[in-house]
Each structure stands twice: as structure tokens, then as C-alpha cells.
Amino acid sequence: MFVADYNMIYQLVATFLTGIIIKLLDDYMDEELPSKLLSPETRNGILPYSLIIFSLAAALNLTYTVTLFSGAYVLGMFFHMQQKLPTGLTGLQESLIILFINLLIFPFAAVLTSLLVILFIQSIDDLLDRQWDKRMGHHNLANQFGMGEMIILSAILAVLLMMLDLKKFVFVNLCFFVINKMYKRFLLS
Amino acid sequence: MQFGYVLIAILINLLVGYAIGRQIGLQEGYQRGLSFGPLKMREHTYLSGKCPICSKEN
């Protein structure tokens, strides 16, 4: 089915590195960076190291890195639709611009599957963090639409992604699982 | 592939039905709760001799 060559390893490593960057960005936006990263020695290193890791991921596999990161950005801004951002545009406008640029540069299938897989990860994450987000007042799809609806939506997205791009679906889920485990073990303890 | 389309169609039907049913249930439940609430508070006052909101003795 798949030709096992170095391409797959590059895709997996690029997905893993992009996942780390997305997790860091998410925590930065929610102002929930772990205290180990906010110490005086490490605080100034977050931005340069994030950019280095992103450039390495892009060098390994440009399509996966940029589409996954843009997908995370688009979906993140989509839920702050009316909020005015530093560029002067609303969240919705920025999302549409980024989406349009991605569609100009990358194949439609790559952009679509990246968006869907990020939405799948977002819904699983929201299902797991329902109670925490309710207490902290963060936006949460499971709290907004209901747990049952999100479970069925996750199942629909999983089936759709398995039909469209099984490799990306497996890689992203694997990386999500590993990154969460590593995060809890090394940064939150 | 066709199995995938059929499965997605079934899941979409399930999602729409569940979402509509839950919304109707929430509205009906809220209306019933509005009429049940005062009765329950009066029962509590009668049994305990205190107001459930301000804890003032009867």
C-alpha cells in the first residue's frame, strides 16, 4: 500500500515538530505556559527555539508543516471571529486570508486533510478538557455544542480522514498522543 | 470506499437527530423545571421550617 521510504520518516518527524510548535502556540495564546518554561533562563528562548524547530520541520516536509500549522492557526482564529487582532483585521478575515494563501500554494487535498485532522484533534482535546475549560472560562466545543454531538462529529471526521489520507491521520494522532504524554511528564511535573 | 460513504451518511443522520432531540429536551426540561422549582422550594420550607434561599426561620 505505502512505499516505505525516507519520505514517510520525514513526514512523521515534521508532523511531530509541528505538533510541538502548535502546542506551544496554544499554551502561549491561553497564557498557560508551564512554569518550567517561564523561568528567567528559558523564557527568552521560547521564540527563537520555536522558529528553529519550525524551520527544521519545514525543511523535512514543507507541505505537512505549513498546512498543519496554518490549519491550527485558521481554526484557532475562527473561534475568535469578531475579535480585532493586532493586524487590524478580525479573526475571520485573517483565517480566510491564510486559507486562501495556502490554497494558492499547496494542493487542495493537502490543505483540506490538514484542516480536518486539526479539527479532529481539537474536538478530542475539547472532549478531554471539558471540566478544566469550563472552570477556566476557555472556549470549548464540547461545552458549547454538547458532549454527544462532539463524539459523533469526531467519529465522522475519523471515518472521513481514513478515507482521504490515512497516513496523515495516523501520524498526527500518534504525535498528538506522544506530545501530550511528554508534556505532562517533563513540563508539568 | 462505498462503505465509508454509507457510514458517514449514517453518522450524519445520527448527529442531526441527536442534536435536534437534545435541543428539544433542553427546552422542555427548562419549562418543566420552571414549574417544578417553586413547588420544591415550598416543600423544603414546609419540611424544614426555613426558607431555602435566605435560611430565615418561618
UniProtKB/TrEMBL annotation, chain A:
Keywords: Membrane, Transmembrane, Transmembrane helix. The keyword Membrane applies. It comes from the Bacteria. The chain crosses the membrane at residues 46-76, 96-121, 141-163. This is UbiA prenyltransferase family protein. It comes from Geosporobacter subterraneus DSM 17957.
Automatic annotation (TrEMBL), chain B:
This is Uncharacterized protein.
